[in-house]
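Hello Y.,

Per our agreement to keep a running log of every chain we model this quarter, I'm adding this entry. I've kept the format consistent with earlier entries: sequence first, then predicted structure.
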Amino acid sequence: MQSSDGATITYTFLGPADGRVVALCSGFLCPDTWWYHLAPALETAGHRVLLFHYRGIASSTLPAVVGPDSFTVRRYAMDLSEIAEEEGLDDLVLVGHSMGVQVMLEAYRLLRERVSATVALTGPYASPIHTMYGRREMIYVYEATRRLLSMTYPPVLRLAWRSAWQYLPFLTIGRALRAFGPLTSDAIVDSYVRHAAQMDPRLVIRIAEGMHAHDAMDVLPTVAVPALVVVGDKDPWSPPSLGHDMVREMPDARLQTIPGGTHGTILEYPEEVNRHVLEFLTDLDSGRNRTA
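Predicted structure for the entry above:
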């Protein structure tokens, strides 16, 4: 699909050709990697699944003219909204992981008349830089890193970026930072690493800036559909407190905590996550989700 600003947004459907659509909103720089377990589980259960790539990610292209709003969270949500319009989708369950929770909430803002439910999987509702590791000082680390990268000569930056992904022990570092835990498949994470290494680091900076500038706190009280919020109790990137905030602010939300789960909970404990999501969708069909 060609978006309104000229970017080509690639997407595909799994499962039946009609019925309710479960739209999966990916995290930061993620193609389909983190849906490795959930997408096929949804398809097997008979759900129609929408997978799409954000602009500049995997097979989706950049817009015809890159502007200041080309890589905002709202722009990603607009792309999903345009897919919904293109395909005539009127019964959507929006699912987000990590940064995808921000995208999911912005998509709800745009598509609320078409949305039946929302699912947030270990993700924030606003800039994660303010809440990572429960320390607001992370904002200074982010700003210093962003400025350093932005000032680096582009060819040098590209070489350094690719070399870092290629030669640094990313799996070891990621586990030390609790971006994912020891139960996460090395092969799955490696596919994410190989994709990220090929990206233009200047685009990565733009995506990070868009993520950091976003805040959907004002959306939470307006989510007038059943909502599921899943958190990992060992997740420092999207601390469990954010999930409690979301459930408190949303009118009809339930919270599920995965013991031992880090930011990669959907890859570490797929059976538990899949069960919670599938039970939520079954309850949605039966009308048992409403808490009021």
